[in-house]
């Protein structure tokens, strides 16, 4: 692994300043990231050194988990821009999951009965090249404060909603006061039964899990679910495990969702290792998504037949609670749909 470029994170320093400092130090230049990994750009076929609007963004802590000298490292592959992203592929579109038609108000999306998704922040701490919102126009949402207030008013006026999902971007890029205010507002809405956050930050920037954040979550009336996003066991290093342990101690239910990605985790051993590591650090596997067909990500696609073979193999070697549901999201459907697989484990 590449040597860390800053001192190891010390647990007691969880006051909020450190994570913002680390985010500001993230790699935004392709050459700098490759240089830190001891890689020459010539070693990466089809490298895109100037990725345009969807720029490189990789926290140094996450880069430190990559194997130096390996251009095919599965963590690097998730974040490194390639020229293939600019080539069209049949069926791959800017809005593959139908966010646009499901929008009730700027940043408030409802696709499924009983729950609505609020884009709490328009930025991420890492730019994953397969992101299904990589073409989402966050700037068109307007000013953050007024649109959040408008969304909360709509949620409060709709008694059919029992759960709000905070997403983005990444909701944990809100600082503790702003996130705390949002959570407290939701906490006062009597018909809500849960609040859910989807975040990659505990994995790529575990310093974000501050004592203040944990205290806010512990103090809520609403049960809180945090869905992290990890695709490979090597993403779940000890700082991530420690951050998740603090969240669990605060009463947060922890789940993980992954995306099935060619060259990253499309092997049964890799997926099984991910499930085992998740359970070891207190997280249950939740979803294994077939790739959303977003423009620019076709090179990550795994054929359905291969995905089903992998699922069958996992069912044959893991207890059921460690097998994530293999699903695909289809724009306009009433729920995410499972892929129907063979009943017996298959050899991989």
Number of helices: 11
**Shape type:** globular
Q: How are the strands ordered across the major sheet?
A: 1-2-3-4-5-6-7-8-9-10
What is the CATH homology-level superfamily of the largest domain?
Aldolase class I
Biggest sheet overview: 10 strands, mixed
What's the number of domains?
2
- End-to-end distance, in Å? 28 Å
- The number of strands is 10
Regions with little confidence, pLDDT below 50 for 5+ residues: 1-13, 341-348
Per the CATH scheme, the topology name of the largest domain is TIM Barrel
Give the % helix. 25-40%
Fraction in beta strands = 5-15%
Structural classification: alpha/beta
CATH class of the largest domain: Alpha Beta
CATH architectural grouping of the largest domain? Alpha-Beta Barrel
Q: From the alpha-carbon coordinates, what is the Rg to the nearest angstrom? A: 20 Å
Q: Provide mean pLDDT, rounded.
A: 93
SSE arrangement, N to C? HHHHEEEHEHEHHEHEHEHEE
Give a short synopsis of this structure.
The protein is an alpha/beta fold and 348 residues long. It is built from eleven helices and ten strands.
């Amino acid at each position: 692994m590449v040597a860390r470029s800053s001192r190891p994170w010390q647990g007691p320093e969880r006051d909020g300043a450190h994570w913002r400092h680390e985010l500001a130090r993230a790699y935004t230049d392709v050459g700098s990231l490759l240089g830190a990994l001891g890689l020459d750009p010539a070693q990466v076929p089809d490298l895109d050194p100037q990725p345009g609007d969807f720029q490189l963004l990789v926290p140094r802590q996450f880069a430190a988990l990559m194997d130096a000298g390996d251009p095919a490292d599965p963590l690097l592959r998730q974040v490194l821009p390639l020229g293939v992203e600019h080539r069209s592929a049949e069926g791959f579109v800017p809005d593959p999951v139908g966010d646009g038609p499901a929008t009730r108000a700027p940043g408030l999306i409802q696709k499924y009965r009983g729950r609505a998704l609020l884009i709490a922040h328009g930025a991420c701490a890492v730019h994953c090249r397969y992101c299904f919102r990589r073409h989402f126009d966050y700037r068109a949402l307007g000013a953050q404060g007024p649109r959040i207030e408008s969304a909360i008013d709509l949620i409060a006026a709709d008694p059919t909603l029992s759960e709000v999902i905070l997403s983005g971007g990444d909701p944990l890029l809100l600082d503790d006061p702003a996130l705390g205010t949002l959570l407290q507002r939701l906490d006062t809405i009597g018909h809500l039964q849960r609040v859910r956050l989807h975040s990659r930050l505990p994995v790529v920037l575990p310093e974000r899990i501050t004592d203040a954040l944990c205290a806010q979550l512990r103090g809520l009336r609403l049960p809180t679910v945090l869905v992290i996003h990890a695709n490979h066991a090597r993403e779940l290093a000890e700082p991530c495990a420690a951050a998740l342990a603090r969240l669990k101690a605060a009463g947060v239910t922890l789940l993980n969702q992954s995306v099935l990605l060619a060259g990253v985790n499309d092997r049964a051993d890799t997926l099984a290792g991910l499930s085992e590591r998740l359970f070891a650090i207190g997280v249950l596997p939740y979803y294994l998504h077939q790739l959303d067909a977003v423009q620019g990500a076709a090179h990550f696609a795994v054929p359905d037949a291969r995905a089903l073979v992998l699922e069958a193999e996992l069912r044959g070697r893991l207890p059921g609670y460690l097998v994530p549901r293999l699903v695909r999201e289809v724009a306009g459907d009433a729920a995410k749909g499972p892929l129907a697989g063979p009943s017996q484990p298959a050899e991989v």
